Every structure is written in C-alpha cells, then in structure tokens.
C-alpha cells in the first residue's frame, strides 16, 4: 500500500457523515446487546466454575477424570449462556443501558462544532 493510497482512503473516511445511518445504528445496538450478553455469560460461567470447584468429586465412585472436567467446563458454559439469554441475572441489561448512555453522550459531543 502506497502513501498516496493511504491518504485517499483516509480522506474518504473523513468525508463520511458523522451520524450513522439508522440501519447501521440498529446493527450497532444489536451488536452491543450481544456483546453484553456474552460478557454476562462469561461472568456466570466463572461463578459456576467456582461453585463446582468447591465440590469434592474426585473421591466419588463415578468420577470421570479429565473427560468429566472437560464436559463440566462445556456444560457450565452452556448453562451460563442459557441463563444470560433468558435474562435471569440482569447484568447484561445494566451494562447495555450504561454503555448506550455513554455512546449517546459521545455522539452528542462529536456532533457539536468545535469553536
């Protein structure tokens, strides 16, 4: 990539309107919602992992060894995703609202003309 091409690409970027199109904004909202849900799922998975680490499963008759550990990890992730997508905890909703407010405030500031 030459310097001239980079300059042309950058100037094209600068010439784009500052306000996003409505369909792009809806896509951004959907992406933000999905990211906050995934973050909540990871948080819940960490809680489930901590809970299962307190159990003494290695001395039981049906301890499955490494296979059970792998299965338990995947099962905890699926439990966490399901809990997050059902809205059981509400952490993703709070994060979404907070990030949405900050995004709106940032857009309002960027729309103002500089003196």
From TrEMBL:
Residues 1-28 are annotated as: Disordered. Residues 1-18 have a biased composition (Polar residues). It comes from the Bacteria. Residues 51-98 form the Flagellar protein FlgJ N-terminal domain. InterPro entries: Flagellar_prot_FlgJ_N. This is Rod binding protein. It comes from Spirochaeta africana (strain ATCC 700263 / DSM 8902 / Z-7692).
């Amino acid at each position: 990539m030459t310097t001239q091409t980079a300059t042309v690409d950058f100037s094209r970027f600068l010439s784009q309107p500052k306000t996003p199109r409505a369909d792009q904004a809806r896509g951004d909202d959907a992406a933000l919602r999905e990211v906050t849900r995934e973050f909540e799922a990871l948080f819940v998975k960490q809680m489930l992992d901590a809970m299962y680490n307190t159990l003494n499963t290695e001395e039981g008759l049906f301890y499955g060894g490494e296979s059970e550990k792998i299965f338990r990890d995947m099962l905890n992730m699926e439990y966490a995703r399901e809990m997050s997508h059902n809205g059981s905890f509400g952490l993703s909703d709070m994060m979404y609202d907070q990030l949405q407010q900050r995004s709106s405030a940032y857009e309002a500031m960027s729309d103002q003309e500089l003196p």
